[in-house]
User: Fold SAM-dependent methyltransferase from Lacticaseibacillus camelliae DSM 22697 = JCM 13995.
Amino acid sequence: MSPIHLSKRLAHLAAFNNDGRRIADIGTDHAYIPIYLAQTGQIDYAVASDIGAGPVAIAKANIHAAGLDDQIVVRQADGLAGLTAEDALDTIYIAGMGGQLIEEILEAGRSRLDGTETLILGPNRDAEALRRYLAAHEFSILDEDLVEDAGHVYPLMSVGQTRPQVPYTEADLMLGPVLRRKRTALFLNQLEIEIDKTEAVLRGLGNATQVPEAKMADEQARLDLLKEEFHAERK
Assistant:
């Protein structure tokens, strides 16, 4: 049987698995990632977890149809609450949700992590805020990428639970330390979009009757950093 077809975003997420043999997929929805990784022989065991009864039922049906009931366990749970030490996981996916929700899941479930698991995170918004949370809690960003799918650009992160060797700069937190090194065409395109957005914010603030000076200064500093990053690529 051929592996299930994954969207471009899910395929990139699946490819972020770096030799993990025992994984969890939090917010699994249809359980496509664990099914694909099992079908392609990349994992031995998976926990597919979701807080909703509907997604859990769909995941169970998809796993059964793929003949993987003995390899993928489905649990209805909030965040990491359904994981146990006996799962002996080496990789945990948390994707398809906002960065703030990923933060909340990590914060609530940190006691369920033993510090050795690689976290593969796929925020569909608020990636900058998520990076700031990770840095504040001494997680290290091991790898990053951007993928464009159905007109939306998604950031992907592989995260370790050890302090980064070099503290992240403001540009790293805003734009992504690994993304800055990779300098892909998609990264530069997103950088231009952020410059345009920030310039629009500043124009709006300039037309307002009362604007706190600190707000103007923050937005101007952000614009200066974005432009510096953009032009540094072309030196």
User: Anything to note?
Assistant: The mean pLDDT is 95.
